[in-house]
Amino acid sequence: MNVKLEFTLNGKNVTVSTDPLRRLIDVLREDFGCTGVKEGCSEGECGACSILLNGKMVTSCLIPVGAADGQDIVTIEGLSETEKGKLIIQAFADGGAVQCGFCIPGMVVAAYSILCENPDPTEDEIRLGISGNICRCTGYDLIVDSIRLAAERGGSIWKK
Amino acid sequence: MEEVRAYIPETLKEALEIRSRTDCIPLAGGSDLMVSNKRTTGVAPSFDKPVLIIRNLKELKEISVNGKGECVIGAGCTSAEIAQSSVVPWHLRQAASRMGAVALRNSATIAGNIANASPKGDTPGPLYLLDARVRLTSLAGEREVLVSDFIVKFKTIDLHPDELITAVVVPLSERNFDYIFWHKVGTRKANAISKLTLSQAIKFDGRIVSDYRLSATATGAKTNRSREVEKLIIGKEITPALIEQVIDAFDEVISPRAMPEFRREATRRMIRRFLSVASERPENRVIDTFDGFHVTGQPEPVF
After folding, report:
1. Min CA distance, A141 vs chain B (Å)?
2. Would the pTM count as exceeding 0.90?
3. pLDDT for B1
4. Model confidence pLDDT, tens digit, residues A120-158
């Protein structure tokens, strides 16, 4: 049975009438066209479908859309419009962090999540912060370096 | 009329009312249930009963200390919230901070980790060690049960159809221990499922051990703790022979299925390490597997 659900998506109030047990990733991709949210493992291990739910990084494949009712959701589409999101994306481009690109939307969300909590992370802290995001191309080093670059370039913007 | 697939209550009272009249599956973080019931891309998961979505119930989100000096953790608190709380006992914070990776810790709840009743679950080890209880609430009232009794056996819990887990109550007895130990053996430093986790705590009265506790996860069908084994050392002075006696007795308690030789040997070494270092009465309360060797604040596996 369909249920009418309301939530905030990338800063806009949206409504959807749907089966509340559909996975949030499917609703975001199919009903709202947020195809930057990628599906890798479908079981919360790979991090490709990472989004921000009430400001916290979660994997959208593990959340029934009914649990999003009344909540605040930001996907890579919304994050890439913000100053912080743009800064991370530019650092990833300049630092050579991207090869095939499939993991990158999730990696950007993870990078954002790290830097908002810790504006000046060490290499180990960055590696812990992206430990739930799997990349099969890069070997991670250039991603780690690019997150450091985003920290240095952003400076004080990460503290607010 | 179409079948109801899910209920989304806004208050705990509403959730309990639904529980009292409907056979349904409570779902909080979703990190276990959404995987075990998943179908495929673009297709909603299939559950054999209606689902009660309790992820956002505010009543289940608080962490506090009650009048008896016990830490009361709301059932819906996530691993991240538990890991970051200064009032949560040390062993439990360690386990919560090493559960999965960041995104999982922002979803997975303590009640879900208990209710899943997996022998590899991260939080039951510390909860058994600290004699923690689950608070079970229904419209008729509430009861509290030791976590070690609530988890009846592999994947089986003592939850009545009209009840919800509403809190986990952890006695702060840990503060009384002189030395504490927690070590998770995983295949990687982060985002690992436990291959074996030991929690230990000890208290001395002079040279005499006045309390000792030991629990192990991933060493059988459920988390292992044995008061009989602990009693072997309580009231005595630690000697190498006594340590070996404890080790041999605990080896009889555990029943690891996969890689049993590895799990048994690793368990023996971690017990020996903790008791022998504690008997020397070092300054540092936290006993690691290696002296002074840390990576990102966590001890390296000794094996």
Report:
1. 17
2. yes
3. 56
4. 999 999 999 999 999 999 999 999 999 999 999 999 999
Q: What is the pLDDT of residues B6-37, one digit of tens each?
A: 999 999 999 999 999 999 999 999 999 999 99
Answer whether B53 sits within 8 Å of A58, measured CB to CB.
Answer: no
Q: Which residues of A touch B53 (CB under 8 A)?
A: 20, 64, 66-67
**Is A44's CB within 8 Å of B106's CB?**
no
Chain A CB contacts of B106 below 8 Å: 53, 56-58
Give the ipTM of the model, two decimals please: 0.97
CATH of A3-76, one of 3.40.50.720, 3.10.20.30, 3.10.20.90, 3.30.450.20: 3.10.20.30
**Collapsing DSSP states into helix, strand and coil, what is residue B136?**
strand
Domains and CATH numbers, chain B: 6-170 (3.30.465.10), 177-279 (3.30.390.50)
Of A21, A43, A69, the CB nearest to B44: A21
CATH class of A80-155: mainly alpha
